[in-house]
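Workshop exercise sheet. Pairs work together: one partner reads the sequence aloud, the other fills in the structure field after running the prediction. Swap roles for the next sheet.
Pair: D.N. / O.F.
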Amino acid sequence: MSAGQTKINKAVLAYSGGLDTSVILKWLEDSYDCEVVTFTADIGQGEEVGPARAKAQAMGVKEIYIEDLREEFVRDYVFPMFRANTIYEGEYLLGTSIARPLIAKRLVEIANETGADAISHGATGKGNDQVRFELGAYALKPGVQVIAPWREWDLLSREKLMAYAAKHKIPVDFNKGKKSPYSMDANLLHISYEGGILEDPWAEAEADMWRWTVSPQQAPDKATYIELSFERGDIIAIDGVAKTPAQVLTELNQIGGANGIGRLDIVENRYVGMKSRGCYETPGGTIMLRAHRAIESLTLDREVAHLKDELMPRYASLIYNGYWWSPEREMMQTMINASQQTVNGVVRLKLYKGNVEVAGRKSDTHSLFDESIATFEDDAGAYDQKDAAGFIKLNALRLRIAANRKKK
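Structure field:
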């Protein structure tokens, strides 16, 4: 521990078992002379989390937390976000962003359970995740100490990390086939790709990079139809079969991926100030967003729907920037949840070669669509078209006044 550092007795580390966090584990013990508790979360990243236990045990860790958080992740984070139809900068479905509040929450809870006085993470000093982890931690445990090794150490390359691991006999699997040239992050909502050739925004993503989706050109020549049942804004069944939140997203990922749905290539504005190019696969989320907007179009009052659309970019920025646990996000969530009480019904979708088309929507209990009024046929007096003349003249009054002034 260097001069000026606060004495740390025990730290909870967000631990994957990979090279970075395995090196961090040993580095924390050496640099801070502290005990380390490891926390490994399964949020649907598609990789085994079990081996992390053996690796932590091999490094002498006494307190090891390995948890399946898939249901909690989708139920308490993904679904609430999708009730707002949330997208960042018009495109990004926030797959990485929405996973961080849950991990921060569990880091703090485990710190409380084990009597730890610090938490640690493997996010770099250039990215958004350091902000998300730490804002969440401070919101939930104001006095917690946060250790971010990438902002402290000089192990700033893979070669240096591997040399450190070899020197300290850290059990890391170096030879698991060809290493991907991309920095990837995955959970049940999406998988992201950064780095490598993607650092040139003019370069097209390589065809073999994508892991969850077939290309639209290679998708089936026959459309796939599915029906999604909604209750208070959340999907509760697929084709009439009840599903848990995690089961919903897992199945939609499979169906969407098989139909070439959910690929995205964007340049986004990071909270720390730089622009970053990233590619994402979010097949299930892409389907969910289209379906949710379809059922809302039938069941939400016009002004409620428009107000939600106005507030959504602010809500999206709060999540992207790490303010999930802020009072303003919680206030907005209360309003969003209240708006969803009538969002009940079924949406039929047509999936075809990367496209998600709405083929039908219905709500037996909360539809605001009145065919007797909307019809182009004789509406039997349900709507007096003559009333429109006064409506138009009143709304045109300010325009007419302005036009007359210009003439003068």
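Discussion prompt: The chain has a mean pLDDT of 93. What would you look at next?
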